[in-house]
Design a protein that fits this description.
The protein is α+β, with helices and mostly antiparallel strands. It has eight helices and 17 strands. It folds into two domains: 168 residues, Peptide methionine sulphoxide reductase MsrA (Peptide Methionine Sulfoxide Reductase, Chain A), CATH 3.30.1060.10; 140 residues, Peptide methionine sulfoxide reductase (Metal Binding Protein, Guanine Nucleotide Exchange Factor, Chain A, Beta Complex), CATH 2.170.150. The strands form four sheets. The protein has a six-stranded mixed beta sheet, with helices on one face. Helix 2 packs across helix 3. The longest helix is centred in the middle third of the chain and has 17 residues. The radius of gyration is 21 Å and the shape is globular. InterPro entries: Met_Sox_Rdtase_MsrA_dom (IPR002569), Met_Sox_Rdtase_MsrA_sf (IPR036509), Met_Sox_Rdtase_MsrB_dom (IPR002579), Mss4-like_sf (IPR011057).
Length: 316
């Protein structure tokens, strides 16, 4: 596998791992420090603003499965690119944003994407994220690695409390989502927008056994793979896990006098279904019970044609 590096500074590195982790072609996402004047800085030294380093993540990826341009898109959607003094509630030089390019092609791609964002008019203020040559990257201490996995509750509280989560939701919603909602069928609208439930055994995918991926009917984002689908006997399509955990969110649902965990898509904020702890134990024990009306199935043979070639590795 051909491997390349991508290095991004987007404020607190705790919040910059999850968006990239587990996406196709990503081998690792490491939190660390770069761009400073000293060697082997510690977290305390960087936070003291005395070393010149910024908190960053370094991503090892396969460009055949995950183009650098896609990483750039993901990066922009995690930050406020107009803030030169830090990110959200985290202030200071160590929290400034930057793209560190590793070769000429990355530099040109970064400059092009920055210009495109500026010209889009999405933000009234100038885009101030710096584009700089990559310098020595120093991995952070072990307790800062994969923070969203090790401390999920505190991570979510921090992301919300810092203001990052609200900023992303308010500024980075896909404009195509709003157009797609107007084209939904009555059942698709009832399920995704009104938190409805379609009839069991009378929906499109409950017994579909063809290889392929299931995408969000509104946003087109990939949600599930046929490789993780199983017959739960409930009459709805069921999966052991999502393809990209970053594209789903789980919320407590107390409707109808029950306590359940609702599953929604992050990009479109569509209701998808619920997750239950009664799935196959050998695959994690989860049963993602989804509504067919919330998804669109794309057969393996048509994935490349429809722009999902990067996910063909799921069927290797």
């Amino acid at each position: 596998m051909t491997e390349m590096y991508a290095t991004f500074a987007g404020g607190c590195f705790w919040c910059m791992v999850e968006p990239f982790d587990q996406q196709p072609g990503i081998k690792s996402v490491v939190s660390g420090y770069t761009g400073g004047r000293t060697e082997n800085p510690t977290y305390e030294e960087v936070c003291s603003e005395s070393t010149g380093h910024v908190e960053a993540v370094q991503i090892t990826f396969d460009p055949k499965l995950m183009p650098y341009e896609k990483l750039l898109e993901t990066f922009w959607r995690q930050i406020d690119p107009t803030d030169a003094g830090g990110q959200f509630h985290d202030r200071g030089e160590s929290y400034q944003t930057a793209i560190f390019y590793h070769d000429k092609a990355q530099k040109e791609a970064a400059e092009k994407s920055k210009q495109k964002l500026q010209e889009s008019g999405k933000f009234k203020k100038p885009i101030v994220t710096k584009i700089l040559p990559a310098q020595t990257f120093y991995p952070a201490e072990t307790n800062h690695q994969d923070y969203y996995r090790k401390n999920p509750f505190h991570y979510e509280m921090y992301k919300q409390g810092s203001g990052r989560k609200a900023f992303i939701e308010n500024n980075w919603q896909d404009e195509n989502v709003f157009q797609s909602r107007e084209q939904l069928s009555p059942m698709q609208y009832h399920v995704t927008q009104e938190k409805g439930t379609e009839p069991p055994f009378q929906n499109e995918y409950w017994d579909n056994e063809e290889e392929g991926i299931y995408t969000d009917i509104v946003s087109g984002k990939v949600l599930f793979s046929s490789r993780d689908k199983f017959d739960a006997g409930c009459g709805w399509p069921s999966f052991t896990k999502p393809v990209d955990p970053e594209e789903t969110k789980e919320l407590l649902d107390t409707s109808h006098g029950m306590r359940r965990v609702e599953v929604r898509s992050k990009t479109a904020d569509s209701h998808l279904g619920h997750v239950f702890p009664d799935g196959p134990k050998e695959h994690g024990g989860q049963r993602y019970c989804m509504n067919s009306a919330a998804m669109r199935f794309i057969p393996k043979g048509k994935m490349a044609e429809e722009g999902y070639e990067a996910y063909l590795h799921l069927f290797d």
